[in-house]
C-alpha cells in the first residue's frame, strides 16, 4: 500500500502490527522532542494514565495494563517511592490493595495527557481531520475491547 514510503525499512511487512509499532515509536519520539519528560521513569506514564481519580485495585490495574500482579506491584512500589501514588489495603478486605495518584501523580498525568493531545492535534492537522478521526474511531473499535470496555469514546 505505502511501501514506497518505507525506504530503509522496505523489507518490513506492510501489516497492522508493523504500522501500529511505527505509530507508537513516532508518538514516543515526538513526546520526547516536546521537552524533558514530566518524570524520569517513562514507564510510569502509561500506568499513571490508567489510574482513575478514585483509585483502582491492583488486580484491576494489572488486568488493564496487561501486566502480572507481581510485576505491577513492583511498579506501584517504585511509583510510591517516587511520590506519584499511594496504595492502601481496604479495611474491609486486607488482601485488596487500592492505588490512588498523589497530587504529584495527578500533575504528571495531566502533563502527559496535554503532551499527547498536542501530538494528536498536530497529527490530525497532518493527516486531515476526517482521515484522522476515522483512524481513531477504527482503532477504538478494534482495540478498546481488549481493555475490557466498550464504552463510547469521549467527544
TrEMBL record:
Keywords: DNA-binding, Transcription, Transcription regulation. GO terms for biological process: response to stress. PROSITE patterns: HTH_MARR_1, HTH_MARR_2. GO terms for molecular function: DNA binding; DNA-binding transcription factor activity. Residues 13-144 form the HTH marR-type domain. PANTHER family: MARR-FAMILY TRANSCRIPTIONAL REGULATOR, TRANSCRIPTIONAL REGULATOR, MARR FAMILY. This is DNA-binding MarR family transcriptional regulator. It comes from Hoyosella altamirensis.
